[in-house]
Design brief:
With 201 residues, the protein is an alpha/beta fold.
Length: 201
Amino acid sequence: MPNNFLVLDLETQKSFKEVGKANLEKLKISVAGVYDYLTDQYTCHEEKEVMKFEKRLREADLVIGFNIRRFDMPVLAPYLFSSVDTIPVLDLLDDVEKARGHRASLDSLAGPTLKQHKSGNGADALILFKEGRLDELKRYCLEDVRLTKEIFEYGCREGKVLFTSNWDYKTYEIPVQWKEAAAQASQKNHAPEPSFPTSLF
């Protein structure tokens, strides 16, 4: 049975320069790219479609992303009826930060781990949105989703990922326990409901 997981990546309409770094909710979603393990499909939702996506988001055992806790979820929050804090999340960036003591980019993992690189950056995505080139923007977003998915799967398979630092340009192995985290999320959401203690009756 396929895992009930999603891989999520958002692109925004505005930049931090326009709204300030403390106002993530004002960045506004341009598109939300998703890979769904249940259907084995990639989909991309425009801003007007995001609220319809909430039901599937709430059903997932785990939502996987890169910097998802501090970026994607706060940006997504204004579009949802209930708190994003109740959504089970696996943020791939967390393990890199713990191991190296600083943040990293998706490309700094994709390059050494997958021998692949991003097709652009966040600034490119903003230009595509402002110029109304939504088909290109969706392709860019879903490419990031695919890279995130494949890094996650590599980490589950190998128990590590590779990271090239922009500080010293060396490549490091980062130990990860994503397979265990994913299994725990599945078990937690499918645990049997506790029965009433008979001592109460």
